[in-house]
Structure formats: structure tokens, C-alpha cells
Amino acid sequence: MVKFLMLISLVLFSFTILIAVYRIIKGPTKPDRVIALDMIGVNLLAAIAVVSCILLTKAFMEVILILGILSFIGTIAFSKYIERGIIVERRHNR
Amino acid sequence: MKENDVILRTVTRVVVFIILTFGVELFLSGHHNPGGGFVGGLVLSSALVLLYVVFDIETVHQGVPFDFRKIAAFGAMVSLLSGTGAAVLGKPFLTQGFGYFDLPIFGLTELATVTIFEAGVALTVIGTVVTIILSISKDV
């Protein structure tokens, strides 16, 4: 029963990722695409957690951590590019 | 317009240390578990890239005053020398050895010379990735 529910949640996570991919392709503005990329990261992370619960293994924990770190850095870099037009500054002027 | 990114800077000061700790853990667990020098170096360099993105280049260079091209070259040299030692002793090149030692705190511990090779790989990856990121972003 629990395994059946986990499979259903996997299908729903995949459907959510498909919706986010549609928003990335279609999205009118750049912030829409950035939010959709972050949403793909979070849903992929949750799907990997469910998969590791189904397979009863702890081998995917590092995958979850690395995906979280890379999604965080990617979102920060995209939002800084949208706000300032440059990602790595030579000298911070404020 | 004046940007206010105090939340980003405060979060980054904590998160960078979490990422660095995770990178070192991946590096050390690479002997028997998933991980190793390459992945550990990638995670460590992602922490440095996060620092470069949130702060600027000159501020980070005050805290981390290394030339990353020299770090990449030094790592490649460490890997090469760790393989040369076996060739001097008459074994094939890059032959690694290990042994069990009784350390004071850790007890019976397995020490392997693969760790030196992996440290060289990690340093090379860190230097290469940070050099690539800084070279790409230097066009403005």
C-alpha cells in the first residue's frame, strides 16, 4: 500500500516537472524560467528521496545534497544576472 | 538603484562552510563509498564559485589569496609525484599501496597512498573550475 502511494507520488512529481518544462519553454519573461528551473530542482530532489525510500537504500543521499547545492547556486546566479546583468563582479560598488 | 542583499550575504556566510564540510566528507569517503577526489574537488570549487558570485573578486581574493592556475599545476604535480614513487621502487607507474596503522585517537586505521593522488586530483579540479569561471566572467 505504501509502495503504491510512493509510485503515485513519483508519477505526480514527474507530471510537475513536465509542467515546469512547459513553463521554461513557453515562459514570457526570464524570472518565470528561473522559478521553473528552481521548481524542477526541488521536485527532482523529492523524487530522488522517494526513489531511495522505495529501493530501501541510503546511496542517494549525496545525490540529494549535491543537487540541492547546485540548484541553489544556479538560482542565485540567474537572479543576479537578471538584476545586475553581470554575475561575477570585479569590484562591488555600492 | 541601490541593491540590498544582506539576506543573501548572511545565508552565504553559513552555507559556504556547510558546502566545504560536505566536500571534504565526499573527498575522504571516496575510498569505500561514492565520492573521491574529482567529486570532492567539484563540490569544493562550487563553494568557491558561490563566494565569487555573492561577493566580488577582490573581496574573495583578500580572504583566499591564491592563484588558481598555480593550484591546478601544483595538484597535477602532486598526482604525478605520487605515481613516480612506485616507479622508483621498481613497481609499475602509479602503483598504490596501503597499510594498517595504530593511531592514537582513531585506533586501527587504514592509510593508503591513493589519498595523496586523490588530493592532487582535487586540487587540479578546484584550480581548473575556478579558473574557467573567472575567465568566462571577465569579459565586461
UniProtKB/TrEMBL annotation, chain A:
One of its GO terms (cellular component) is plasma membrane. Keywords: Antiport, Cell membrane, Ion transport, Membrane, Transmembrane, Transmembrane helix, Transport. Pfam families: MrpF_PhaF. The keyword Transmembrane helix applies. It is found in: Cell membrane. The keyword Protein transport does not apply. It is a multi-pass membrane protein. The chain crosses the membrane at residues 6-25, 37-57, 63-82. GO terms for molecular function: sodium:proton antiporter activity. InterPro entries: MrpF/PhaF-like. Its main location: membrane. Belongs to the CPA3 antiporters (TC 2.A.63) subunit F family. This is Cation:proton antiporter.
